[in-house]
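ok so for the tutorial part 2 we go from a plain amino acid sequence to predicted structure tokens. step 1 is just haveing the sequence, like this:
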Amino acid sequence: MGSTLCICSRGVITIENKRYMFVQKLGEGGFSYVDLVEGVHDGRFYALKRILCHDREDRKEAVHEVEMHRLFNHPNILRLEGQCIIEKGSKWEAWLLLPYVAKGTLWSEVESLRDKNCALSEDRVLHILRGISLGLKAIHDRGYAHRDLKPTNVLLEDDDRPLIMDLGSMNHARIEVTSSRQAMSVQDWAAQRCTISYRAPELFSVESNCVIDERTDIWSLGCVLYCMMFGEGPFDMIFQKGDSVALAVQNNVTIRTRIVINMYSQALESLLSSMLVVNHQERPYISTILAQIETLVPAVDGQATTRI
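step 2 — the prediction. this is what the tokens look like for a chain of 308 residues:
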């Protein structure tokens, strides 16, 4: 990773020989912060993600996230504009310069509509779902899986083009487990890196002799689709109440009935059900999902919202 960085008294930084001015903080997570910066050279806004690295393992994971970004140049995967690592005493910070998407995340859009007693129209749902699926296909075609797909990890451009972000949990699509020790290692990793209410069932209790593949993402995609349709993920409330998500995901998901009858087509609900199958060997691959979406997407994507 590059190391071209300068922090000046006026909040100006230089990354890969380009200068950026700090504007404001955008948010923070457990081990990272996101700032809004403006490019001095082009006047555009960017999101600067700063990942705190407490040890070499943290640094290795940050480098991995950068490497995952570099694998893709796809309209539905957030691109990396620049990066560097700086030393701070015995620790490091990895800085990832990313495009700034003012509209925010898919979750922000769903939550905003829900607060207005509205929901995404089927046309919009299909348009967004198709874009996410195209991004996932690009990831799967390279032999990787995202492993942490959720509405807060999808940004929406003004034209509803979705951008998959947060690639730090990505790893090889196919994981062959041959021992109980390896199974526990995979399970522990999933508990740390895969959001519980969007985590595939096979990652909760990993068998000692099994193969886990990219269809963990299909389960998560189903949860994202459910969220777009019904305003929350199928297991969000279970998690919020403190009940066992691990037990809940082993049972068949019942499509919510509080929504007005006929709000969504039977075909879309059938597509949703095909993703939320507990046995991952019975889940479709992303190519099958895309083929089904193409039969449902109207010639012109609508942008309306539907009132509940």
